[in-house]
Write a structure and sequence with these properties.
The complex is a heterodimer.
Chain A: E1 4-7, E2 10-13, E3 19-25, E4 31-38, E5 42-51, E6 54-57, E7 64-66, E8 76-78, E9 87-94, E10 102-103, E11 107-111
Parallel strand pairs in A: 2-11
Antiparallel strand pairs in A: 1-3, 3-8, 4-5, 4-9, 5-6, 7-8, 9-10, 9-11
Chain B: E1 4-5, E2 10-14, E3 19-25, E4 32-38, E5 45-51, E6 56-59, E7 62-67, E8 72-77, E9 86-93, E10 102-103, E11 107-112
Parallel strand pairs in B: 2-11
Antiparallel strand pairs in B: 1-3, 3-8, 4-5, 4-9, 6-7, 7-8, 9-10, 9-11
Classes of the chains: A mainly beta, B mainly beta.
C-alpha cells in the first residue's frame, strides 16, 4: 500500500544544531507539505513543493528550509535549532487537483 | 491573523447524541473545505470535505454544512460514538488544485459512554 512516512518519530537536539527531518511518500504525489502543530495554533504551514526542484515558503518558514530533488522526498532542515522550534512536525502529500492531503505520523522534536 | 477559526477548544457529548463542531473563516477566496480527525501520536486523517458550490455533504454518520454568507461551516456527527473521541481540525483551501490547506486550531471531542 502507498504511504507517507516520517523519520525519526522523536528527536531531541541542542540549540544551534542543524537538524533534518525526513519525509518519504510512495503515492507519486506532486504536492508535498510540511506543517508544525502547536497548542492553540493548530497546524501551520512551513514549506511546500509542487514538484521536483520547486519549493515555496509557508506562513512560518523562518529558520527552516526544504529541498525537492525527487518526487518521493521532501526533507525539512532546521538550520540552527531554537527552543521555539520545539513542536510536532507533520509531512503531507496530495495529488494535483484532488485537494485532499494525506499526512505522515509526525515527528516530535524537542530543542534543549 | 487567523483565517480559519475553531472557537471551541473542547466539546463533550454523550454516546448516541449529536456532536456539532463549528468553524469560521475570514478569507472569501476559500472554495474548498475539509475536516480532519486526529488521534494522539498519529497524523491527521481526512474525514469529509465540501466544495463552495454545495451547502451540504454527507458521508455516513458525518455531515458537513457550509454557510458561505456567514463564512461558517459545521461538522455534525450522529450518532456519536466513543471511538469518535479525537481532535477535529477544520481546514480551507483557496485553490483546490494546490492542496495548500489553512487549518483551524482544532476542537477536542470527548464522547462519553
Amino acid at each position: 500500500d502507498a504511504e507517507i512516512t516520517q523519520s525519526p518519530r522523536h528527536k531531541i537536539t541542542e540549540t544551534g544544531r542543524q537538524v533534518t527531518l525526513a519525509c518519504h511518500q510512495t503515492w507519486n504525489h506532486n504536492n508535498m507539505f510540511w506543517y508544525r502543530q502547536d497548542l492553540g495554533h493548530g497546524l501551520r504551514l512551513i514549506h511546500y513543493s509542487y514538484g521536483v526542484q520547486d519549493t515555496n515558503k509557508g506562513e512560518v518558514s523562518d529558520g527552516y528550509s526544504v529541498s525537492r530533488s525527487n518526487t518521493e522526498d521532501l526533507p525539512l532542515t532546521l538550520e540552527s535549532a531554537a527552543s521555539s522550534q520545539t513542536s510536532v512536525y507533520f509531512c503531507a502529500s496530495s495529488e494535483s487537483s484532488a485537494g485532499v492531503a494525506f499526512f505522515g505520523q509526525g515527528t516530535r522534536l524537542t530543542v534543549v | 491573523d487567523q483565517q480559519v477559526k475553531q472557537n471551541s477548544p473542547s466539546l463533550s457529548v454523550q454516546e448516541g447524541r449529536i456532536s456539532i463542531l463549528n468553524c469560521d473563516y475570514t478569507n472569501s477566496m476559500f472554495d474548498y473545505f475539509l475536516w480532519y480527525k486526529k488521534y494522539p501520536a498519529e497524523g491527521p486523517t481526512f474525514l469529509i470535505s465540501i466544495s463552495s458550490i454545495k451547502d451540504k455533504n454527507e458521508d455516513g454518520r458525518f455531515t458537513v454544512f457550509l454557510n458561505k454568507s456567514a463564512k461558517h461551516l459545521s461538522l455534525h456527527i450522529v450518532p456519536s460514538q466513543p471511538g469518535d473521541s479525537a481532535v477535529y481540525f477544520c481546514a480551507a483551501s483557496a485553490l483546490r488544485d494546490t492542496g495548500k490547506l489553512i487549518f483551524g486550531q482544532g476542537t477536542t471531542l470527548q464522547v462519553k459512554p
